[in-house]
Amino acid sequence: QVHLVESGGGLVQAGGSLRLTCVASGRAFSTGRLGWFRQAPGKERDFVAAIRWNNGITYYAASVKGRFTISRDNAKNTLYLQMNSLKPEDTAVYYCAAASRLVGEYDYWGQGTQVTVSS
């Protein structure tokens, strides 16, 4: 079992920055991937970014590419999402997720952290 806890959300003005953190506890990962997703009110949960646990290869949604950076610290079992040049449309609950495989569904999810970007 894996337990994921996000932090770092908050209220920021458009153009500002936030860094989200997700700490994983329980089973250690040596393969698979970690990801960030977000869900705005009344909308489905969308993919934001992902990173392979073993080699650090990253993937981004087109809407955040060039503004957001996903990274991980293997020694600390911690995932980060640096968000720059934030826009009001980035407002959502952000979730981190973990998968033991490189493809397919994510197995574990955090409880989410709210990010609100004011115009």
How is this structure best described in words?
The chain has 119 residues and is mainly β. Helices cover 0% and strands 54% of the residues. The chain is built from no helices and 11 strands. It has strands at 2-7, 10-13, 18-26, 33-39, 46-52, 58-60, 68-73, 78-83, 92-99, 108-109, 113-118. The strands form 2 sheets. Strands 2, 4, 5, 6, 9, 10 and 11 form a 7-stranded mixed beta sheet that branches. A 4-stranded antiparallel beta sheet has the order 1-3-8-7, with no helix packed on it. Strand 4 and strand 5 (46-52) form a beta hairpin. It starts with a strand and ends with a strand. The model has no long low-confidence stretch (mean pLDDT 94).
What topology emerges from the helices and strands here?
Elements: E1 2-7, E2 10-13, E3 18-26, E4 33-39, E5 46-52, E6 58-60, E7 68-73, E8 78-83, E9 92-99, E10 108-109, E11 113-118
Helical element count?
0
Radius of gyration from the alpha-carbon trace, in angstroms: 13 Å
Quaternary form: single chain
Proportion of helical residues: under 10%
- Give a quick account of the main beta sheet: strands, pairing sense, barrel closure: 7 strands, mixed
Elements, N to C (H/E): EEEEEEEEEEE
Spans of at least 5 consecutive residues with low confidence: none
- End-to-end distance: 40 Å
- Helix/strand/pairing class, anyone? mainly beta
- Overall form: globular
Offer a concise description of the structure.
The protein is mainly beta. The chain is 0% helix and 54% strand. The strands form two sheets. Strands 2, 4, 5, 6, 9, 10 and 11 form a seven-stranded mixed β-sheet that branches. The protein has a four-stranded antiparallel β-sheet with strand order 1-3-8-7, with no helix packed on it.
